[in-house]
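Run: sequence + protoporphyrin IX containing FE -> complex structure.
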Amino acid sequence: MAEPRNRYSTVSLVLHWGIAALVLAQVCLITLHEGAPDGAPDPYIGWHKSVGLSILVLTLVRVGWRLMNPALPAPPGTPTWEKVAARTVHVLFYVLLIAMPMTGWLASSAGGREIEWFGLFPWPLLPVEGGREAARSLMGLHGLVMKGLYVLIALHVLAALKHQFLDRDNVLHRMIPIIPRRP
Ligand code: HEM
Ligand code: HEM
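>> structure
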């Protein structure tokens, strides 16, 4: 019988931590954009759009990868409610990681704001009617989705800490392999 895998594959680790770092970068870029004095150069919103669209592409790649590579099983003895909660949070993560850039892209498209991907090439706009009014509503949705993402991140990090310090299992080790594996 094949040995059960005791950590995620390198591709899964790079996608998990790469996307997490880019989400953090998005919040930093928006903070810099909001703090930029009027009239001062503000490259941040352009970078925010380019990073956000990269997150969209990486998340689609990740969903494809995940469908071909099942998640590791929960540690033996994990109660059903915990398995259901973890699965729900993970599925919602994928939904929101797509909804977040999509609402931004749709808003920019409705407002007719051109997007240049890191100044390298024009990113196509979507055919959205409604002009500035629609752009404003979509931006409202963008902010709302972010609130949902914050809730998921908080629950997810608390769950990871519970595994590490209360359950004392290897769930965190398999996503952060430099953390020593418990026997
Ligand atoms: C923006 C930040 C983050 C996002 C979007 C995110 C998203 C995800 C997703 C979608 C999965 C499920 C993978 C699958 O489909 O099987 C996952 C797994 C995992 N994440 Fe995160 N994550 C983030 C941050 C973190 C942080 C900060 C930690 C550690 C403190 C962490 C620890 C883990 C662990 C241990 C797993 C594996 C769970 C298991 O094996 O059942 N994540 N994450
Ligand atoms: C996962 C990807 C993304 C994350 C995490 C993210 C996050 C955020 C956050 C936290 C805000 C501030 C919201 C508020 O203050 O209510 C924001 C605003 C904004 N985002 Fe995103 N975003 C992402 C993708 C995108 C994309 C792809 C675009 C456009 C192509 C975009 C365009 C904007 C714009 C135009 C604003 C408003 C900035 C302003 O106040 O002038 N975002 N985003």
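>> summary
Residues 23, 26-27, 30, 45, 48-49, 52-53, 55, 97, 100-101, 104-105, 108, 115, 139, 142-143, 146 surround protoporphyrin IX containing FE (ligand 2) (CB under 6 Å). The helical segments are 10-35, 44-68, 80-110, 131-167, 171-175.
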